[in-house]
């Protein structure tokens, strides 16, 4: 007798092959979703990296004195103004190397002048621009690959309210997102990301007018 596939075996084989073929669209869809998720994470990482890089710049272009970032005077909450000794505010530690104001009380940049100046990047508000940065990806040659064409990263910098009762033992403070009409001690950095056929998202962070301490060095 010669070996041959029975009708039942043939039917089972056809069914198995049919199931395998039916799963192909699902596999392709899942691959597209995975590609989309991966690209979204790449864009979020790029946006977070740009925001973190922006925060490494000085708070204001007028902040530097003798290579040290100083506290500037603003039109914000009066509790944060310079105190009677002329160089410190409430909460400052007295000491030559500690955070303090300029001796001539330099003021921060006005709200109307926030933005790039002279083409240089020397403080965070220089990144305030209506011109977005672009993340461009090469177009794919098949409709089976999920892809984005372009992403636009737009950064804005504004002053926001710094109002609170800083003389109280317990300070309740809510960071806002509404731009202030005057200079304050808090700048809001907003990075908006828009993409082709994608829901836009926004990252926000704050930078404060606190100056910096000078490193102490041991004298020999």
Question: Could you provide a short overview of the structure?
Answer:
This protein has 220 residues and is of the alpha+beta class. The chain contains 1 helix and 6 strands; from the N terminus they run H-E-E-E-E-E-E. The chain has a 4-stranded antiparallel β-sheet with strand order 3-4-5-6, covered by helices on one side. A two-stranded antiparallel sheet has the order 1-2.
Walkthrough of the structure:
The protein has 1 helix and 6 strands; from the N terminus they run H-E-E-E-E-E-E. It is an alpha+beta fold. The longest helix has 49 residues. The radius of gyration is 29 Å and the shape is elongated. The protein starts with 6 loop residues before the first helix and ends in a 12-residue tail after the last strand. The relative contact order is 0.18. About 4% of the residues have low confidence.
Shape annotation: elongated
Order of helices and strands: HEEEEEE
Average pLDDT for all residues: 80
Low-confidence stretches: 140-147
Alpha-carbon distance between the two ends: 104 Å
Q: What can be said about the biggest beta sheet? A: 4 strands, antiparallel
How many helical stretches? 1
Strand segment count: 6
Class computed from helices, strands and strand pairing: alpha+beta
Radius of gyration: 29 Å
What amount of the residues lies in strands? 15-25%
Q: Name the helicity range.
A: 10-25%
